[in-house]
Fold these 2 entries.
Entry 1:
Amino acid sequence: MENFTPYTSLAGGILLGISACILMYLNGRIAGISGIVAGILSNPSVTEKAWRAAFVLGIIGGAFTYAYFFPINIEPREHMTTALLVIGGLVVGFGTAMGGGCTSGHGVCGISRFSLRSITATAAFLIAGIITVYIVNQVVGA
Amino acid sequence: MNKILSALLAGIVFGVGITLSGMVDPNKVINFLDITGHWDPSLMFVLGGGVITTAIGYRFVFAQGKPLFEEDFHLPTLLKIDRKLLLGSVLFGVGWGLIGYCPGPAVASVGFRPEEPLIVVVSMLAGILLFKATSKS
């Protein structure tokens, strides 16, 4: 096992849960990042765009602040070209829009509501991700 | 204004949480998915911590009857497991496994490490628009 971090990961997960509860308690919204981001682009209402943009700015600000006090060290990836990042990003955007959610909306919020759709979606993207990494490793030879 | 400030607050907590959790490191994400190789189970703790906290918290929240700054809870109305849900989720999983970024960590990472995440976020937005454009016709 590599770089196993159960405590910080659990603590981070609990904060994600608290964030989901804040957004539901105050605004009645699911804390699903793909859906909230999509709404900035496609929702015609200015008030809808505004709270979604505020949420995204909060995420960026929160991450910036954390990393300012506790610098994040990420190892560079040799095989990760710009083309691959663009293709991956496109597929992630297209797929989450089509499937109606990502790791936060389906994975955290949906499973917490015992939604059968979200449990199915989470199983599907986890399995697809595992198979993809397996195939990539065979090709790259990792 | 209340709705904007509460979304900002929820976003900040999310941003700190996702960074602390380690999910902002795409190497860690790919190791999590690499169950037959360099497996790092940490992300199960992220998902587990998130689900348990939300499941407990939502019980109290829904017991209030309505949110503080809205008339109703906005919950998904779709119940059917259809081809769109499955195909979309599989596509998302493929992209996630290819680059190690899902939407939350990609957005958060822009806050401290602009180059890779910015490419991913812009491409992700293009992917969302592409889906909207193709599903309308």
Note: Chain B touches chain A through 115 residues (CB under 8 Å).
Entry 2:
Amino acid sequence: MKLSLEGVSKHFGPHAGLSGVDLEIRRGEFLSLVGPSGCGKTTLLHLVAGFEKPDAGRVRMDGRDVTGPGRDRLVIFQEPALLPWLSVEDNAGFGLPTKPRALREETIHLLLRLVHLEKFADLMPHQLSGGMKQRVALARALAVDPDVLLMDEPFAALDPRTREELHHELQRLWMGLHKTVLFVTHSVEEAVRLSDRVAVMAAGPGRIRRVIDVDLPHPRDFDSPEVADLRRQIREDR
Amino acid sequence: MNTAAKQLVAVVLLLGFWEAAVRLTGTAAHHYPVPSGIALNMVRGFSSGDYAAALAFSLARITAGFAIAAAAGIALGLLLASSRSARELLAPAALGVQSLPSICWLPLAVLWFGLSERAVLFVVVMGSLFSVALGVRDGLAQVPPIFRRVGQTFGLTHRQLIVRILLPAAFPGILTGLKQGFSFGWRSLMAGELVYGSTGLGRSLLIGRQLSDVNQVCTVMVLILAIGVAVDRVGFGIIEKRVLARRGLA
């Protein structure tokens, strides 16, 4: 197991938070958390990220307790959170050592090509569209070669077309890079398109209701009847 | 005609009117300055080297004083931003002390340091320090929390977080504090030089009064104003514009 949560609870007042969550995420797996707002999806992600500590239970990665944030588990947020004083290039290279310079530049160049932004290296963040910014954020995270990507509704603020574009992009990247991904979303559609498994959560208190296997090969045709079918199943179940 | 040209015409007309009014009414010339007198005094003062020397003294003092105030102010601002108890204990004091005209520190400074350069420097630092500190504090308070998260997920240490994320993110606010700090420091220095009066522009102002030379008094006032405006608009103004434009904020 890459990541495991055992009996994890985290309380914010009487009705919010998580209660007794068990979840295991395999190495290289793409697992999505879906559920209504207030079900604690983001809290769960923050616990794995090490931003928060559980009130009870254990969060482990590779068998070791998570004690704080670290660059083996890079978080990608809903807002791209690019640093506005750095160029696209320097944002992408934020987590890289400054020396040797040649290696740094080569890595940045490679990553920007990976997310199709090599022509925009010298622009500033405010000159980019929302989708482009999120691509830079993705490049910035991948630059440090983390084992795990923790994605917190990364496409929620984008328009539908850009979102679909980034679904294809992320699927392609994930297939090539073999990262373990924990993906939080409120869109069942998004979860079914991208994931190996979908954990459906419920609120009050936050818990995992069931985990559904999405047994379809990658790359997926997002418009296939199987995808639509699973999506309907999960929606009706809720 | 563009705005600058209009403003120039207005200034020239005003100066002409001023000159004519003093001359035509036969007002006592040694009590009322005239533009031509100021211009002449400016030329004379610079060709004798007096004003250049005075300027050099004042600029050296403000540079030293402002450098100390900026360094101490940034440190104090960081402390105020990072420690809750520092904020509760020191922030009201800092705000309170800031409302004291800094020249009021001079008697105390003289008791401590004697009537010396250090006393004047102390007044400049006290005039400037708290504006810088409060600017740094406010700048840091406005850093979006998500930037801290970014630093954390990239595994930055506390020190790296400050240097690589918090200070650059707060830079526009810090710049505002520095700008205000300089402006207050400059005013404090002029007050200090008027009272302590061994060298500098403040001293030249004092000499003008002692000689009953209204044109010299006004010329030095123009110089003091010019330095203040130049540093504020040109020095800080250009940096500020660049910083904001780079971030897409201007």
Note: Residues 205 and 217 of chain B are 5 Å apart (CA to CA).
